[in-house]
Design goal:
1337 residues, alpha/beta, eight-stranded mixed sheet, eight-stranded antiparallel sheet, 12% strand, disordered N terminus
Length: 1337
Amino acid sequence: MQWCRFPPFDVWPPLRASAMQSSSSKLLEKHKQVVDDCQSSQEAQRVLRSLMHDYWAEANRPKRVQPLCKDGLVELCVYVLDTYLTSSLDDIRRYTCGALYNISRQLPSSRVVRQRMLSAGAYPMLPKLLVSDLWKVRFYGTLITAHCGLAGLTSQQRVVCSLESIGWLCECLEKTLGGEGFGGGLWSIEEVMAGAASLCSLPDNCEGFLAANGAKLTLEALRVVTERQGSEYTDELRAITMTMARISCDGRFKSSCSPSAVEILEQLMSSEIVAVKSNVMSVLANIGSEKASLEEAFKQACASSSAKWNRSQLSVVGKGRVGKTAFVRAVLQKPFEHTESTIGMEGMTCEVSSVLSGKMWWKEQSNAHSELEMLQARQAAAIAKGIQMVESDVLQGLESSLERGRVEGEEEGEEEETTGREKAGGPEGESTGGASDEPSVVSEPVMSKYNQDLVVECLQDEGMEESVVFELWDYGGQDVFYALFHLFITRYGMFAVLFNMEELMSGDTAVRAECLDFIEFWLSTIYLHTSQASSESCSPILIVGTHKDKVSNPLHHLFISRILDDKFRDHIAWPHVQVYQQNDSLFAPSIAEDTELLMKKLFHSMDLDQSSTLEPSEVEACFGADADPSLVQQFFSFIDLDRDGKISFTDFRAACTQALSFFPVDNTLGHVDPVIPHILSVIEKIALNSDYIQQRVPFAWIKCLDSIKQTGQDVLLLSQVEKIASECGLPLSRKLGLSREVCGMLEHFHHLGKLMHHNETSLRDFVIARPVDFLIRPATQVVCEHDLHRTAQQTEARRLTREWKSLTQQAVLSKKLLPILWKEYQDRSALLEHLCVKFGIFIPLKPEQSDEAMSFLVPTLLREETLSPVADGVLNCFLLFSSDPDFLQQEQRGVWRREDLAGRFVPNSLFGSVIGQAIAWSQSTGGAQQKLSKTEAMMAFGKHKFLLQELKEEKCFRLVIFVQNPKNILARLTSIVQNVLDKTMPRLRCYTALSFASGGGDRFFLDYQVVCDKVREQEGMWIGSDHVEWTELRKELGEWLPSNALLSSYDVFFSYRQGDFDSEVVQKVYDILSYDVVGEEGRRLEIFYDQVRLKAGRRFDLDFMKAMACTSLAVPLVSSHALARMFSLNEGSAEDHVLMEWCLILELQLSGQLRSCLPVIIGPVSSDLDRDPIGNFFADDPLARLPDIVPRRTVEEVKKFMSNNNLVPSAQLEERTVRSIVKELTKNLAVLTWTLADSHGQSVLPRSDTHARELFGLFEQVAKSVIKAYEAIPVQPQVGKTGGDRGLPALEVDEGSTPGDTRLKAKEPSVQELMEEINRLKANQVQQAQSGCCSLM
């Protein structure tokens, strides 16, 4: 005889005792005395027998089961059985088991019943029922156990029932079909078949059922029920067809299935009952009926090309040790256990793939099938059931975004002609024209292998089409991990923010404030990373209070909710926080019962009436001695509706039934806590109503995701993914093209947590298939609280005492530690290190010696330390942060008092990220060695020193500058800050504020840009009650105001096409040159850099050509990026402004107006460790591929400019082709950047070290080359106004003319000077023609 396999019974009492304490039972309290008296009183036995018989009968009515459960019938049954299961009171035992059985019949469809069965401790009672001496109790126990198994209550056990019990079930079915009773009572076909269906959910039980003639009895039941017409037999058909679906794959069922039975089943295919139809389809498919059409449904599903994928994310966040991992275990129905603090993020998908929601519980989903197989099987099942598909398509959304982007781009392009300098072009060979006349979507069927068993499995799952697969994340709570979070937080999904309720009930105001600050941090962080500008909405948020086992009083919960409401009601994310509707919860015990129990506890009375009142002192006592009296008084006033200084029973009850702004949970109960299923229900409802869930996802995308996973690679290049996508049938949209569609696909998968890809320029080349395994786990070997976490690798690394001390005390990671910390990742350590640098986790530090091993700054590990006090009178300003688009729109625009800044938000990781990027810039510009702490950084850009501080209380940064010219440092630092924000939290903006004292002595913050605008427009502004004239603003704040007016002449002009690396080269070289001096008098170079010099409202093309005409040295950046747009030029193409500059350089060289030209030639830039960081520009002869045509419109613009400014164009101007212009330009003495990079790489070092450090000195070397070229220009007598000492003919700006009509006026040099210059240029040209392109280095 084979019995249920359960753990030993003695492991259950503690769980049951805990569960019993957490559940209130009105019926148990009412009848407990009668139950206890049965042992000594015949009358009590009679009463209890009658009572349980009545409950047995009442529970047989499905609509009465949930109310009976809320009243505590399950607790009463468990108590009776626990007391009398081994007694001789057979009727009481039988009726009680019957009542519990009737309740269990609702388990497969009711979460409420399931939760009460769990909390009452019914499951631990089952092993005793199955070994009872009374066979009816054993029979009931079998059925109850079967229903429990189907409902997931026995998810950790194999519910294999005895052959004896299965035989009784078949005998009961046979007698019921014959109209006879069984076991002393009448049974319905529905309840017997429901028991059979639950029983057969396990293959071992199916075997016993078939052996006991179950197939023939089930077919007979089908015949009997279908002969009775009427909708009242819906439940019978559902139970019968479900049983048949579970046994139909067995040959004994097939052989028992007569033609008449098959005919009945085929007729039921047209049933309007979805469950019956899907079960019948499964049966017919298993027995090989041609009408089962599952394969046709599968083909139809595949032909639809897309389907709802039903994927989402749930991220669990909170402080360390708050109970996040325990909460995740409760969600997954795992018992509570103490765990170590989570290191980094524990993606549950790394351990259990994913979590599938369902009617009853969430279960871990296996990876037995590919994503495409599962999706198409689900879609086929939905089609077979007749369920309609949704209409919206994610691909259509991408196309719409593209169209919107084109319109916006066209509008911006029109403005750019008058407001900015357009230099950037689209990718080479990629069309940016209007929409094509071809169909937008290419329909190519994508099919996985047909798996009938999988389709049948989906058919049998009633809720499969509405189930959502969640990627469940448990985030580390220590603040050192915050720098990683922006890589994973996305808008698809929702967030559970956990806090410890004990902290808000603490009498320690500092503890309470810290808890509230942490909640505020996450509310702000979630809003920043998930909000959309178009709707100002963010991802849904659930606030969860843990430790309910210690803070269980409903008054305390209401009190905490009040604190949260008062603190955050004005927070921008608060409207997206979900509310816990206590009185609507079907899972929690009755609020009235809890209120009554609490009132009894407070009044020490068992008899309450409506006249009962509560004094303030009693409320204060309820909150404990540590409670803040002022907060208690506020709370008392809140629920004192009559305002009479007392709380009435009515007031109290009304207060306790209010909705809470958080969900209180007891993690020690695990999934038994009744609030857990309520949370899951809220999450499911939100997910199913989300737009991204309603969209169809193309099968080709899912196939591509499967293919990416099947490569087995942790990281793929974007080009590899594009190749895989092409093999999977992409692009589906001709409007989008392959590159755009792949990026859109990767963005969709990234938001759903399936992989990681960032479209930001420096990161977009990498697609991380397994981000937790590949990036987070190894990164958190370095980025963690080393005093709190200690792994085996970290223990070993501590043996390198000096290096470990440097890491833990100075946040400097030596390369010597990585082979130890990353022992498990040696085969990919170079790529991993490279990605950590790319993502800003590590910042490479410039080695002091050429053969020294590389080291990295890890900003998140910096310690709290005050570097130096700041003296009075130093130049300082403040960087403020806000996601509010109306931040500047105060009563006085751009003017804030200090108190106005309360409530601002500065992400914890922002300061570390900023100083990391600032250090990288400082090293590239030759800055002095820095001193760093967690909240302060002393460093320099070039020779200009400054201090950056994070002011925690004021929630801003303070910038202190130790030189008299702060403008360059401010501009560069604010650019770095905004660049960090754009990459990590694009909704947050940075505002520079200058401190200003009014006449009354009040201190204000003034927005820097507003001040600059007022001074430029010569307007005053109101500051407090004073009106300050613009002259006063210029006097007080002059050091900060920009001096970017156009000059009459320049020493150096940078000509480049805006792009990631080209722009970086110009920015850093400009910074280095700005901090340097030339000549005997040590003057500063005057440099034309468009980002500084060009002004809004002027013709940028005229301004940069005028600047070029009065420059001594032109520095054109000739790069692969600069040439990309030129390859597609033709005679009728619009003017190319970079080509225009280069053409003008040649003309000015010929005329002698330009004294020298130093091209900086840059080959292909690569982040691939297997390639050089900068390749040889001439390796693939790009000049030969340039079009050999004259760019007419470009040439016309140059000719027009020269004619308008008294400059004579050369005869060659109108004959120059695109190719000849670039070729002539590169014949000048040039800087070959790939040779500079090679000269700074060390071949004796690891390849990753060489690659990382090759660019450290590149920018300084380019700057030195520029200075060398400038100083090599012959000194000639100055004529008129000059821009330096190189003898450049001065060109004056006519200040009286309009901005768009400014003319350059040249002062003619002598004839002798011109002849000497012409002869020098001719000699130079001959020399260049003989030698080709020359390198300055």
